[in-house]
Structures are given as C-alpha cells and as structure tokens.
Amino acid sequence: KVAEARKRKNQRLKQAKEEAQAEIEQYRLQREKEFKAKEAAALGSHGSCTTEVEKE
User: Fold this and answer.
1) Regarding predicted confidence, which is higher, 40 or 13?
2) DSSP structural state of residue 56
3) Distance of CA 24 to the CA centre of its chain
4) From which residue to which does any coiled coil extend (predicted)?
5) Coil, strand or helix: which one is 55?
C-alpha cells in the first residue's frame, strides 16, 4: 500500500510539473508576443522620425 501511495504521489507531482511547464511556456510566448508588438510600435515611430529628419 505504501509503495502504491508513493507511486501515485510521484505521478501527481510529475503531472503538476508538466502542467506548470506548459503554463510557463504559454505565458512566456504571450509576453514575448506583447514585447514584439511594443518593440515594433516603438521602432516604427522611431523609424518615421528618422525619415522625417533625413528629408529635411
């Protein structure tokens, strides 16, 4: 019985770890996407300022 309980506990821990890893990966991808969008917006506005200065 004790061995079975340990086995079930280890399985639960392994499953929880896998779920946490998946959640972390999903969060990281979401934050990376937001960062890329902000970066593109910042560089895009910076790029237009640079072209205006070059025109003058």
Assistant:
1) 13
2) -
3) 7
4) 3-37
5) helix
